[in-house]
Amino acid sequence: MREHFGEGFPVDRLTADAVERYYSTIGHLAAKTRQTRIVALGVVARRAIRDGVLAPEHHPAHWGITVRGDQPTRRRLLTDAELTRLAAAMPSHLWAAVIIGHDTGLRVSELAALSVTDIEYSPDGRAYLWITRTTNRDGNEPSPHMKNG
What we know:
mainly alpha
């Protein structure tokens, strides 16, 4: 957004026309990314209007932007019977990955990078997976995080 609105993000430049021009430059991004950026700009605009920095006619309701593309859909988890059938249809060396992926919600890249040293057990017997080797779509390695299962 800095490239479009300028360094330091001068809020007085956050007009409906400016937002529409910005939106036209991000059409190559996924719908969810475009939506997130427009929502963030809306938060900034509403606060600027509340603080008297931006005129009320620049409220996001007047922007006329509808994010096009696939909207996120609610994901349906597999039932136990479906998970059993899926695991049975897979080669046996992938059963653990299928079940761990289902139970934790790990991405394929996170599952593929797991090793035995990534498992930590707490005194109460719960297992924790330390996810440290994965990449984002842009190829950068994010900071480690933990998922318990």
